[in-house]
Here is the input.
Amino acid sequence: MNIHIDKSRKIPLYRQIAEQIQSQITSGEIPQGFRFPSERQLADALGVNRTTILNAYKELKADGLMDSHVGRGTIAVRPERSRPEKHPYSREPMWEYLFSDYMKHHDTFDVNKYLEIANQKDVISFAAGIASVDTIPAQAFEGIENELMASRERLLVSPVSGFYSLRKAISSFMQKRSCFCQPSEVMILSGSQQGIDLITRAFINPGDVVVIEEPSFFPAIQSFRLAGAKIMAVPMDGEGMDVGILEQLLSRYQPKLIYTMPVFHNPCGVSMSMDRRIRLLELAGQYGIPILEDDPYSELSYEARAMSPLKSMDQNGHVIYLSTFSKTISPGLRLGWMCASKKLISQLSGIRQLTDLHSSCISQQIVERFMNSGEMEHHLAFIRREYQERRDIMIEALNRYAPPGLSWNRPEGGYYLWCRLPEGVTASELTAKAAAGGVAVLPGVPACLSPQKGEGHIRLNYTYPPKDRIADGIGILCSLIRQLSSAHRDEEALTAEINPIL
Ligand code: PMP
Here is the structure.
């Protein structure tokens, strides 16, 4: 069944729907006995009123093309004389009403749109959170084909949790982050995003409460939302999440999960203070709630040594830890990892094998070889210098071009600046105008539960754009913000003139 409605036509919507169903029944495209969606389902799928569908169905019933049976729902009846004129089922199914409830929770924020913009040649992209092409370590890839061919069996298949030798290399790497975990406590993932999805599917039932920081990493919010979670946000300040508010939420709602990015948060760049970490762990222990720690950025500290992950302070195994090679080697490898108890890793492997079975054998070998080569530390030192320089170029450009009312943070590490827009400038309008002007930015909207907060912010990534284009991009952006801000002020002045009493 395939229905298109055209609200600009003079024909009433219920007639448009009834006519299309009628022609599809008589042509055989909708077969005899086809079970129609309920009035509510079809109304939702077409975005019309339920009475519109009620009237369409009434008309079809009166024409003898539809029948309702208790227990069987509403079905198609094909008149004897009509014969299919063309091959049945030749049109595409109407996906919207076939989708599961899971799919219906999906919101419409489309990350691909931003990745596509980032890939356009002429666009200066501050939108995507990806590494620079200039920092992909050539030495990680050079000569790899010979090694791959020398151990071909490792090209065929990997254990679900990853090659043991890579898990071992990661467990040593974790020691440098002051986290002590055995290889059996490590699962190799196809990006840390997969870890968020796995944990969501393993723990979250529809209606369960998940606590996040606000703002937060928007694909994590989407993941929790897809699972039907009730998401509650804890505000952040310069020391991370407000643990006082967290405690109130824990005591009142008994959440299933706390999701946090304690080091160089995406998008705020903030790291959680030691006091807050201690309190967060105490609270998780007291209420028996697991913490999902997402840590892609702790290697990227530009000022001093970054704080160790929360996992390093976790005495009781409350913290499930995620990290990735996307931010340090290349996101295209799709390789990340999880650290958790051996038992949990083995249980999660059971459901992970139903999605992608295991991470790419080639990516695993590239990373393992690179980690064992001793080059990783040099490379990390190199990207720290590179990204620090890019951060400084961006901040300098903002200092030069920013209009009044625009403010931003100075992150000590990570990938992003989080900018507060001047009064009256909305992130959605700015994002659209900036894209037309050749600059891509990410609006704060998908990262926040409160639309007001989201509309008041944008996230700027400084690692991806070429160094020599950052200042130009910021110049264009700031001049657009200035224009929008002054248009807003003019509007306010006009309103005040028209309504002097207000
Ligand atoms: N978590 C956070 C906080 C991130 O910023 C990102 C990447 N933008 C991810 C997870 C996903 O990373 P990966 O490429 O490893 O899936």
About this structure: The chain has three domains: 13-99, 112-129+378-494, 137-373. Residues 129, 191-193, 217, 261, 266, 294, 296, 324, 326, 331, 336 surround 4'-deoxy-4'-aminopyridoxal-5'-phosphate (CB under 6 Å). Residues 137-373 form a domain with the Aspartate Aminotransferase; domain 2 fold (CATH 3.40.640.10). The chain has a mean pLDDT of 90.
